[in-house]
Amino acid sequence: MAKDLRLRSLRFGPELTGAATLIGLFVLIEILIRIGVINGYIVPLPSAVLASFGRVIAEEGVLQRFLVTMGEALIAGVLVTIVGVSLGVLLYKITILRRATETWIAAFAAAPIVLAYPLFLVIFGRSALTISMMGFVSGLAPVILKTLEGLLGVRPTLINVGRSFNLTPAQQFWKVQFPAAVPAIFVGLRLGLIVALINVVGVEFLINFGGLGQLINELAERYDLPGTYAAICFVILISVCFFIVLERVEKWLRPAS
Amino acid sequence: MDTASPPSLRTSQNPETKTGKPLLVIDDVVKQFATPEGPVVAVDHMSFAVEQGEFVAIIGPSGCGKSTLFNIVGGLLGGYEGNVTVAGERVSGPHPAIGMVFQEESTFPWRTVLDNVAFPLEIQGVPKAERFERARHFIAMVGLNGFERRYPAELSGGMRQRVSIARTLAFEPKILLMDEPFGALDEQTRLLLGDKVLQIQQELKQTTLLITHSITEAVQLSDRVVVMTYRPGRVKRIIDLDLPRPRSSEVVSSEAFGRYVAEIWGDLREEASRGMHDSEAQSR
To answer: Mean of the pLDDT values across residues B104-109?
Structure first.
């Protein structure tokens, strides 16, 4: 019985440690606010944030807004994946194109694209499309760069194995190079989706339109700090959902990873 | 033992074999690379032949052009002078009759042992059930039964190399070409895997060309040993090994084994010293 319990705690060790760390952090913040080390007018009490969840769900329609933001982020994520990976492959295949654009794409990854939102407003109007497109454009560069890095980093021996088995160029790509590059591509997708989600919520906030970003804006305007932080928790939930899906897909593509 | 005549005389235009019906012929092959310091000859007028069912080892010091020759014979490296032929057909690219086992770790980490070994059959379009059945046969041959569902990351270096060998055998090549397949393994594992290779050789009568820098490995496994010179790589001497078959790693304790090892080391010592001095001079 005791052995069983020990095994179970070993299996769920990381999750339990993670949860305990988070709870510990909240307790610490709560204490620091209550004794006045952290200003309670700037950071709300974690217990107040927790208590505001019911209110935010019932009165602010957070679930519906969660779905709106999730949908916008999903569109951005799908576009980032399809276009980013395809462009990465294209740059890998066409050396001159790679040499001509790689530096620009790296610079593009560091650019504060969110500041270009007025341009997107002019093109797409004050709509969900603007938000998704902003997310898509901002998340593109890391996916392209990591796809390229993954394909360029395939071990020459694996390519030689393919050649020794007389693989066609298409077989060489799909059976050897692409699966070998999958771990790097997924690193790019994780980065790209994080950036896309930040930009989706950021643009919602800036143009006061759509889902959680708009809600955070409104709650902040009302100086409802516990509500604002509760809404931010839902943004984190979207991020968690994306990560779980990505992890599943990666596990499916690379079971050993 | 054939040591009487200089290799350049006995092998130049028409590489000899015991029966005169070689499966693989390396005839007057020259390969040079362009470098900033000028052209470097890696392989220089190399000639020898391998008969059907024969196990030939090529041995030489590091940097003598062994791997260059491996890549030429495997069709991975073109632009060479001379001729490499398999059953009379010139090798000008990867040849379906040649299966290659590489020195570096070459299993596909995203595939299980079974999927790795079945890979060449999948490429050939063999139906799933049949290819798995055939793959299982080769997995059993290399002694990896029970590991079919494991991924390479879950296996030791020696087991991964056995997966690579099984995968190449599943390709059913006429010639098995191996480039220091056990180079990264410890001596004991090498001897045990050598036994496995000997068993396979016995069972399949597999024509094999082994590239190695290990004298004991070459003598343990081969019928003939081609000793190469250090830069440019030439045939220094071809030694016929008169050791019994079927053979096992126990052969290493025989007197004849020790004699062959000493004899090959006698040939290699001068070449290895040249190689060492050369690399020391380069690092100054």
So the answer is: 94
* ipTM value for the complex: 0.86
CA separation for the pair B197, B182 (Å, rounded): 11
Backbone angles phi, psi at B24, to 5 degrees: -120, 125
DSSP B160: H
CB neighbour class for A9 (10 Å; exposed up to 12, middle 13-18, buried from 19): exposed
pLDDT tens digits for range A163-213? 999 999 999 999 999 999 999 999 999 999 999 999 999 999 999 888 899
Instruction: List phi, psi (to 5°) of B25.
Output: -125, 125
Two structure tokens written together for A37: 């080390």
- Hey, what are A194's tokens? 């994080």
pTM, two decimals, is 0.82
The answer to whether the Cβ–Cβ distance between B110 and A180 falls below 8 Å is yes
Helices A128-152 and A117-124, axial angle in degrees (round to 10): 120
Please count the residue pairs, one from chain A and one from chain B, whose beta carbons lie less than 8 angstroms apart. 58
Measure the CA–CA gap between B85 and B74, rounded to whole angstroms.
11
Among chain A, residues having any CB pair with chain B shorter than 8 Å are: 155, 157-158, 160-161, 163-167, 171, 175-176, 179-180, 182, 253-257
Please tell me which of the candidates B74, B108, B109 has its beta carbon nearest to residue A164: B74
- For A16-58, write each residue's pLDDT tens digit: 898 999 999 999 999 999 999 999 888 899 999 999 988 888 8
pLDDT of residue B19: 59
Question: Any idea how long chain A is?
Answer: 257
Residues of chain A contacting B99 with CB distance shorter than 8 Å? 164
Is B94 close to A163, i.e. CB distance below 8 A? yes
For A104-144, the pLDDT digits (tens) are 999 988 888 888 899 999 999 999 999 999 999 999 999 99
Report chain A's C-alpha Rg in angstroms.
Answer: 22
DSSP chain A: -HHHHHHHHHHTHHHHHHHHHHHHHHHHHHHHHHTTSS-TTTS--HHHHHHHHHHHHHHS-HHHHHHHHHHHHHHHHHHHHHHHHHHHHHHHH-HHHHHHHHHHHHHHHHS-GGGGHHHHHHHH-SSHHHHHHHHHHHHHHHHHHHHHHHHHTS-HHHHHHHHHTT--HHHIIIIIIHHHHHHHHHHHHHHHHHHHHHHHHHHHHHHT-SSHHHHHHHHHHTT-HHHHHHHHHHHHHHHHHHHHHHHHHHHHH-TT-
| Whole-number Å distance between alpha carbons of B248 and B250 | 5
CB A187 within 8 A of CB A105: no
Nearest to A215 by CA among A196, A231, A191: A231
Decide if pLDDT at B4 tops 70: no
Q: Tell me whether residues A164 and B152 touch, CB distance under 8 A.
A: no
Q: How far apart are CA B264 and CA B58, in angstroms?
A: 11
